[in-house]
User: Fold this.
Amino acid sequence: LDDSDYAEIEANIEQLKANAASSNYSLSAYLRASYGKGVTVKLFRSILADQALYSKLINVKTDEAKAAITEKQVEKAYNAATTTYGVVSYLHYTVTAEALPVEKEETSEDAENTDAAAEETAETAPTAETLAAAKATADKSAASADRKEFLQNVKAAAKEAKVENFDVTTTISDNTSASDIQDSEFGEWAFGKNAVKGATHVTSSDTGYTVYMITEPVHKPEESLTYSVRHILVKFPEAADGEDAKAADDVTVTALDTSNAKDVAIALDATPENATDKATYQKAQNILQEYLNGEHTADAFGALAKKYTEDSNGEQGGLYEDVPLGQMVEPFESWAIADGRNEGDVGIVETTYGYHIMYFVGTTPIAWDDAIRADLVAEDINNYSVTLAESETYAVAEVNEKAAAKCMDAILSSARNQIKNSANAAY
Assistant:
């Protein structure tokens, strides 16, 4: 173990002390109450050290095992389980059947309702005719010769159905794993032998039909990455009824003073000129200014996040760690993965939530075969752990039969008393 490992152990001890104090316990009494008699502070500290050492050992062994896996082993595992490790790319569009009023027999209770109330509660559902019309539209797109014709047919179908704000990009799903496909029927087909490039498939539901076109059949995932950032959220004020909370105002945003931040790269996606709520932007800029005026470290930024952020991760210093692509809102992610982004870069981003003061921590590359290598070594590491445990020497205590019998009598006596008390209780 190194200094950082021991520092983490002591941090755990200090946290236990705080927990104990909040419950009016000494640390020793808290450990006894939590883990049983005989668990002293010294013993607990040694257990934490053993856990840390074991974790470190397993990490080293895991890295060694992964490095020993050959490309041939990876390829064999991928070919044997493409549904688990592969992805597909496809186009899709759902044609919703028109829902019409459903006729139902009138009951005496219905007769008492007013016409207006009956109209408000009228049921609607697709009919055989509207479902057939929806299928015809889906089949037309499914008959497309290529990607271009498919998208043209989809746009025409959306226009015919009067779909508001239709965006053709919503029909595109690239590099999607089987576990991320919600339509199980399509998912099974997409990873089958018939799902070649340009192939189409239509699935049904109670409300309509979805048509799919494969643009790239099962293939290996692309190299990817996760990113880590700290941020401080300053939310937009809540809108009053009938008003826009983000309406532009007459606030003049003060200039950012960067004289003490020559070592900091500042990337402002949201600026005083394009901010939709200048008053809220000024609050965000004031926090950024406080950071620039102080120490330019991740810890310093984290302290400000604990103080100011309106997000839920303030106690973590505003840290979002190892975020996969596609998880955060687009402006947030675009800032974090912009070309040339370096550790320590800061900035301000506007999203639908408000303004985010950003601090870039770094990225972690993810090779397409990481999951395969992890699965291949999992069994080996588990076997190693078992072997390691079985190699230890354990002390075995002889059980005193008289003492055990006495203990059992006490347990039975306590049980009989509880039953007797329950029988005599008023309830």
In short: DSSP finds 15 helices and eleven strands in the chain. The CA atoms of residues 146 and 198 lie 6 Å apart. The radius of gyration is 32 Å.
